[in-house]
Automatic annotation (TrEMBL):
<dbReference type="InterPro" id="IPR045214">
    <property type="entry name" value="Surf1/Surf4"/>
</dbReference>
<feature type="transmembrane region" description="Helical">
    <location>
        <begin position="196"/>
        <end position="216"/>
    </location>
</feature>
<comment type="similarity">
    <text>Belongs to the SURF1 family.</text>
</comment>
<protein>
    <recommendedName>
        <fullName>SURF1-like protein</fullName>
    </recommendedName>
</protein>
<keyword id="KW-0472">Membrane</keyword>
<keyword id="KW-0812">Transmembrane</keyword>
<dbReference type="GO" id="GO:0005886">
    <property type="term" value="C:plasma membrane"/>
</dbReference>
<dbReference type="InterPro" id="IPR002994">
    <property type="entry name" value="Surf1/Shy1"/>
</dbReference>
<dbReference type="Pfam" id="PF02104">
    <property type="entry name" value="SURF1"/>
</dbReference>
<keyword id="KW-1003">Cell membrane</keyword>
<keyword id="KW-1133">Transmembrane helix</keyword>
Length: 224
């Protein structure tokens, strides 16, 4: 009982921590946007993630990657990722530009994505690098890929890529993309569910203990 009660309390604390982190992320999204200079060159600081950002640069459209098996609004398709050469030319950042549908009859056909030449201004949020999905033997080169490895991609393109991405926001109709990104969930509900299960197990253990130690022996005892 002591172990299950302690595990339930631990899961409750984990849920509260997740809720606090989720609240901090939501608060960061309301802060004024940062500029390109705020993008970290090394490992990103936790307090920068999900901050609004405005960056200026030129698209390296020839290195656009279409990450396969990504969903938006319940539909399967691509996440479109293009490196942006930041103004000044010494750094580049991966921009998660949005979602595009896939042609399931002609699977090698790429959806049209507009990448205007010249200097562009991108509004978005500082984000982790694109999440990796499980793959058996996915392509590690070419425009269609299952995952994107930052070190390998930087070596392949010769671009000085930063260790974070920019998730572009705003209307993507002009680019032929959807940008209805899912909001990050806290995940606290799962922890609270686990806490309830542990405490329910503790309650069952207590009931069984009382039954077998006190009630059952008295029921079996011969009458005086």
């Amino acid at each position: 009982m002591g172990a299950t009660l302690a595990l339930g309390a631990w899961q409750l604390d984990r849920g509260r921590q997740r809720e606090a982190l989720h609240a901090a992320i939501a608060q960061r999204a309301l802060l004024p946007p940062l500029g390109s200079a705020a993008l970290p060159g090394g490992d990103p600081a936790a307090d920068l993630m999900h901050r609004p950002v405005v960056v200026r640069g030129t698209w390296a459209a020839q290195h656009t990657v279409f990450l396969d098996n990504r969903q938006m609004n319940g539909r399967q398709g691509f996440y479109v990722v293009t490196p942006l050469l930041l103004e000044g030319g010494r750094r580049a950042v991966l921009v998660e530009r949005g979602w595009a549908p896939r042609n399931f009859e002609r699977r090698e056909q790429l959806p049209p994505v507009a990448s205007p030449p010249g200097l562009v201004e991108i509004r978005g949020r500082i984000a982790p690098l694109p999440a990796k999905l499980y793959e058996f033997s996915g392509a590690v080169s070419g425009p269609i890929r299952q995952n994107l490895d930052l070190g390998r991609f930087a070596a392949e393109t010769g671009l000085p890529l930063l260790a974070v991405a920019v998730r572009q926001t705003g209307d993507g109709a002009a680019d032929g993309l959807l940008r209805q990104w899912p909001e990050p969930a806290s995940g606290a509900g799962k922890n609270y569910g686990y806490a309830f299960q542990w405490w329910a197990l503790a309650a069952v253990t207590a009931i069984l203990y009382v039954w077998f130690q006190f009630i059952a022996p008295r029921r079996k005892a011969p009458p005086a």
